[in-house]
Amino acid sequence: MASNSHILVFPFMAQGHTIPLLDLAKLLSRRGFKVTILTTPSNASSISSYTSQFSNIHLKEISFPQVQGLPKGCENMSQLSRDHLIQFFKATKLLQQPFEKTLEDMSKVQDPPVCVFSDSFLGWTNESCRVFGIPRFVFHGMGVLPMAIKKSLLIHQTYEVESDEIPLVVKGVQLGFTVTKQDLPKSTREADINISQFFLDAEKSDIGSWGVIANSFFELEKDHVSSLESMYGNETKVWCVGPLFLYDQIGPNPSTIWAQWLNQKVGENSVIYVSFGSLADLSEAQLDELAYGLELSGHDYFLIVRSKNWNPPCGVNGDGRGLIVREWVDQRWVLAHEAIGGFLSHCGWNSVLESLSVGVPILAWPLEAEQHVNAKYLVEELKVGVQVPNFKRDQVIVRREVICEGVKELMGGEKGLKARKKAVVFGRMAKRSVEVGGSSYNNLDKLVDQIRHMSPLEKTM
Questions:
Q1: Please, which pLDDT band fits residue 404 given cuts at 50, 70 and 90?
Q2: What is the rounded distance in angstroms from the CA atom of residue 12 to the CA atom of residue 25?
Q3: Phi, psi of 119 (to 5 degrees)
Q4: What is d(CA 182, CA 159) in angstroms, rounded to the nearest whole number?
Q5: Can you tell me whether residue 390 is helix, strand or coil?
Q6: Can you give the pLDDT at residue 1?
Q7: Quick check: 248 and 332 in contact, CB under 8 A?
Q8: What span, in angstroms and rounded, lies between the C-alpha atoms of 121 and 140?
Q9: Is 52 helix (H, G, I), strand (E, B) or coil?
Q10: Across 41-165, where does the E strand assignment appear?
């Protein structure tokens, strides 16, 4: 018999998906739950370091399946080349058997989880949980509106149009901007049947989940929560409990060269922070143009570069106005620094939340996944950012002049100033939402209460 105090959390093996679920695990742990995090061997150490201070968070390892064509030991999206994407997705589907064995073993020792929180990419966990009579909450690594758009288009197949420029019909969703096929993830737009089918299967498997966890706050997306709930049916509730990272304080002043450099900047809002996330790879030619564009803008810049081989071209950073960093940085700390006045971003949802929560406007340069939809949402509906000028998806190179123009507009132009004012307002809302009595705090309270009073579902085995 479940004690209603044990929760199983199963993140997808990608940093942007894992970290928010670990933040949720910590919150549930603080509320008195025993939390077991299910993961694979090569992901265990990083998860353990993130949760090591929580005595009632435990790790359970299951082997990552070997799939032909996937390099041995490749158990995280950060280790992937795009050539191995479909093999990786296939391997994650093979985790269903060890997942069910884990649930079976927990039941045998009279410690089954009262519920499961699992990533949307692991959609098959919903079926497995029904077999064991365990309610499943689905976690999406994106906002409520991008979630609703994605689910509507995949379920209704309304993205199958001839032209990339035709506005799509997004059934059940009210939009403040148009969505075209060009805005959709590459896996949806192109005729890669295997990858498209993976995501379609995941979306369909989600239907009937007991609840949806949204790493967002109601004030930001109140107009879209009911739309997303309607697509799940069965009175499934969307729980806006984020931004999940805001429940923890920002860390102390890092003892690093980059932190010292930033601390020496005396002008408020004088530096633009530039990062494209943990997965994106820009070509060396694009990095050259980016560096030149930042220089031409005349603004101080803090540039994160993933490439180990690229070196700044001649004439870049000769006066020390910019800082180029190749190591991991505490992005929350950087964005919260008073010197940061803008964020040139790929518009991944975690980065969006981290920026808005401290009132920093965004210069949108989307690259993949749902980032193009996020960018339109930020620029055209929320009005907390500006778009890189004349940006076109799949263009080979974004030129330095265009980058320069975008930076100048964000940091000192009329649109940029208006975006900053809006971002500051949402930043205050975000902080308030996770405080006692705030919308996300109250939703978390209600979620915890529901979990404590859950009854097992009717088993389908």
A1: very high
A2: 14
A3: -70, 150
A4: 10
A5: coil
A6: 41
A7: no
A8: 8
A9: coil
A10: 57-61, 115-119, 136-140
Number of structural domains (the chain) is 2
| Rounded average pLDDT over 366-391 | 94
Q: What is the C-alpha to C-alpha distance for residues 246 and 97, in angstroms, rounded to an integer?
A: 35
- pLDDT value of residue 266: 77
- Quickly list DSSP for 153-187: HHHHTTT--S-TTSBPP-TT---SS--BGGGS-HH
Separation between Cα atoms, residue 438 and residue 415, nearest integer Å: 30
Same domain, 215 and 294: no
Ranges of H-type helices in 251-389: 257-263, 284-297, 331-336, 349-356, 371-376
180 touches 195 (CB < 8 A):
no
Same domain, 365 and 273: yes
- Amino acid at residue number 153: L
Q: Is residue 46 part of a domain?
A: yes
Domain that holds residue 204: 6-242+435-452
Phi first, then psi: give them for residue 191, nearest 5 degrees.
Answer: -85, 45
For the stretch 333-345, pLDDT in tens is 999 999 999 999 9
Q: Is residue 140 part of a domain?
A: yes
Q: Looking at residue 62, which CATH number applies to its domain?
A: 3.40.50.2000
